[in-house]
């Protein structure tokens, strides 16, 4: 006789999301250990870690009312994954990004400022994937991102992200708070964010330099 853990579709979806969250935490812990033991090349680690961080942030946003504390979730399900909790919750960026940021001279910029910028890029892109396209949802995210970009002196003068964010902020300022981006506008904004993010990551020093 099959035993069901759920009463209806909503409860089933909740348990499915719990299972996904559990899997993301376990996968991140294994990835962090593989990176520490030098059994994965940094470039592959960074791609996979960024993917897991993005998946976690998207799922955490969905579960925020049910799972207010990831640490408590980990305790409840006996997840001893301190490295994963640190990477997903505390840091929010791959270790390789942290290391490149820390290699900057103090006069250039702090690792915290670089990490903040990375997180703002990811948050803005994730919000569009979640269909948060109202002006009063998008504008604050781009304002925060633009401010964090402006703090960084390591970026080249022709860094594409600055004019693109300035242009989008000006465009949004001409719209009403309740107005929403069209599908075409949302896709273009996501493309501009992704392109700017890639240029930002390329501007950081390579690991070991």
TrEMBL record:
Subunit structure, interactors included: Component of the endosomal sorting required for transport complex I (ESCRT-I), composed of ELC, VPS28 and VPS37. Interacts with ELC.
Main location class: other
Family per record: Belongs to the VPS28 family.
Stated role: Component of the ESCRT-I complex (endosomal sorting complex required for transport I), a regulator of vesicular trafficking process. Required for the sorting of endocytic ubiquitinated cargos into multivesicular bodies (MVBs). Mediates the association to the ESCRT-0 complex.
Domain VPS28 N-terminal: 1-99
Taxonomic source organism: Trapa incisa
GO cellular component, one term: ESCRT I complex
Subcellular location: Endosome
GO terms for biological process, alphabetical: protein transport to vacuole involved in ubiquitin-dependent protein catabolic process via the multivesicular body sorting pathway
Ranges of residues in domain VPS28 C-terminal: 109-205
Keywords for this protein: Endosome, Protein transport, Transport
InterPro entries: ESCRT_assembly_dom (IPR037202), Vps28 (IPR007143), VPS28_C (IPR017899), VPS28_C_sf (IPR037206), VPS28_N (IPR017898), VPS28_N_sf (IPR038358)
Keyword Transmembrane recorded: no
Entry-linked PANTHER family: VACUOLAR PROTEIN SORTING 28, ISOFORM 2 VPS28, VACUOLAR PROTEIN SORTING-ASSOCIATED PROTEIN 28 HOMOLOG
Keyword Protein transport in annotation: yes
This protein's name: Vacuolar protein sorting-associated protein 28 homolog
GO molecular function per UniProt: protein-containing complex binding
């Amino acid at each position: 006789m099959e035993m069901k853990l759920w009463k209806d579709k909503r409860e089933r979806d909740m348990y499915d999301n719990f299972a996904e969250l559990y899997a993301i935490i376990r996968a991140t812990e294994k990835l962090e250990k593989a990176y520490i033991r030098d059994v994965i090349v940094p470039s592959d680690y960074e791609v996979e870690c960024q993917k897991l961080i993005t998946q976690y942030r998207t799922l955490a946003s969905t579960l925020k009312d049910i799972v207010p504390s990831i640490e408590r979730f980990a305790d409840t399900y006996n997840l001893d994954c301190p490295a994963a909790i640190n990477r997903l919750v505390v840091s929010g960026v791959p270790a390789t990004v942290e290391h490149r940021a820390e290699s900057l001279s103090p006069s250039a910029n702090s690792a915290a400022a670089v990490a903040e910028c990375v997180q703002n890029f990811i948050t803005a892109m994730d919000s569009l994937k979640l269909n948060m396209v109202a002006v009063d949802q998008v504008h604050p995210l781009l304002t925060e991102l633009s401010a964090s970009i402006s703090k960084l002196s390591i970026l080249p003068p022709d860094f594409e992200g600055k004019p693109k964010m300035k242009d989008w902020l000006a465009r949004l300022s001409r719209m009403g708070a309740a107005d929403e981006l069209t599908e075409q506008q949302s896709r273009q904004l996501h493309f501009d964010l992704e392109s700017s993010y890639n240029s930002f990551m390329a501007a950081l020093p390579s690991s070991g330099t």
